[in-house]
């Protein structure tokens, strides 16, 4: 029976992936700090990867410091690839972000782009799934643009095509049973929004406290972006869940 390891399997997306795979009767192991695995130091990694056929990496760091973000993905990617080669893993699935090649001014995106390159050169058969911004991350986007001097949230005039986290998890679960693509694919939500409109719609649900302003000089997590930098390409697969339906579901 195929053994699958979900790296970052106790996080928002990872938990959903684990639940979906186990509901299908798959043998799943979880690798995260909560289970005694440290990706940066490598603690416990080889033990959990041993015997794995498929590894799904949805790990991330909560740090916003550019150096720490870069260090996390660099060290984690190196340690994970080494453990996978030693275990003879047949398929590495990486969750990344749409726009990594265009939004390099954003430290998180630049670090993810570096990890993508490392995955392609790791020697382990791979698939990279690039997803757009999750509906669930609207709060974090707002926080990144908060200006304490004006008590407003200032966001750049860029376009986004956000997606439900559940749709991303479902796509990853499907990939676990598919052969490696040896390339990238994009997954996006079905609707396009101005970034400030998207955040405003979600935060209004919870009774937002601060005015949200479209600022031509605004930055997205520290980086200046072209208007279309975060949009998927024409070949992207579109997920089914619309923002209004996600909100009405009480997600």
Automatic annotation (TrEMBL):
Swiss-Prot/TrEMBL keywords: NADP
Statement: the UniProt record of this protein carries the keyword NADP: yes
Keyword Ribonucleoprotein: no
Domain NmrA-like, first and last residues per copy: 3-131
Alphabetical list of Pfam families matching this protein: NmrA
Similarity comment text for this entry: Belongs to the NmrA-type oxidoreductase family.
Protein name: Uncharacterized protein YbjT (DUF2867 family)
